[in-house]
Amino acid sequence: MVKAGREDASYRNGEHSDTSLALVTDLLHRRLGLGTVRLLEGIFPDQTAGLITESRVRFCHIDVDVYQSAADILAWVWPRMPVGGIVVYDDYGFPRCDGITRHVDEQRTLADRVVIHNLNGHAVVLKMPDEPATRHRTNTVGTQVPSCSPCPAFP
Ligand SMILES: C[S@@+](CC[C@H](N)C(=O)[O-])C[C@H]1O[C@@H](n2cnc3c(N)ncnc32)[C@H](O)[C@@H]1O
Fold first, then answer.
1. Distance from the CA of 44 to the center of ligand 1, in angstroms?
2. Where do the domains of the chain lie?
């Protein structure tokens, strides 16, 4: 683990270090047959974002367990996402990953996105147009809904 801080009660840095580029390459490329997956070794975005040549990202899956890493990755990817882009987080709501829950919940009031979560520990953030006509409000279960879409359940 890297970037664990005050927001992360269960991490101290250094956890999950029993791996290597060779081990993960073997798993993905040879055992799972996912030869098109490109692996970047290092801390993202600090050490490896410069290796990404694509200027637009439509989908991003964040599975880093701690607050600051998730926040830094989102800060890098969000400006590169078109409206309709999707960010999926692992471990939302899990006690061991309280920093992820906090990071996702901080986005719930932002006007340019819709935040939902399921009972499996996935949170999904959908990029929306950042325009006054489509600003969101939060319904009774904490999910943002577009104010431009009349819904009988939330008049
Ligand atoms: C729960 S593990 C998940 C790993 C992988 N997704 C899997 O399912 O096997 C989280 C990993 O994210 C790594 N991590 C945390 N912050 C990171 C960052 N900013 N850049 C790269 N890796 C990071 C941690 O070191 C840890 O190995």
1. 10
2. 43-146
The pTM of the full predicted model, rounded to 2 decimals, is: 0.86
Q: What is the pLDDT of residues 91-123, one digit of tens each?
A: 999 999 999 999 999 999 999 999 999 999 999
Structural tokens at position 80: 């590169």
* Residue to substitute in 69, 90, 94 for testing ligand 1 pocket (most ligand atoms within 8 angstroms of CB): 69
Q: Residues enclosing ligand 1, CB less than 6 A? A: 1-3, 16, 43-44, 63-66, 69
Q: What is the pLDDT of residues 33-44, one digit of tens each?
A: 999 999 999 999
Class of domain 43-146: alpha beta
∠ CA 14-18-24 to the nearest 5 degrees? 120
User: 104 with 115: CB under 8 angstroms?
Assistant: yes
**Hey, which of 64, 77, 100, 103 would you mutate to test ligand 1's pocket, going by the most ligand atoms within 8 Å of its Cβ?**
64
| Alpha-carbon span 150 to 18, nearest angstrom | 51
Report the separation in Å between the CA atom of 123 and the middle of ligand 1, taken as the mean of its atom positions.
Answer: 17
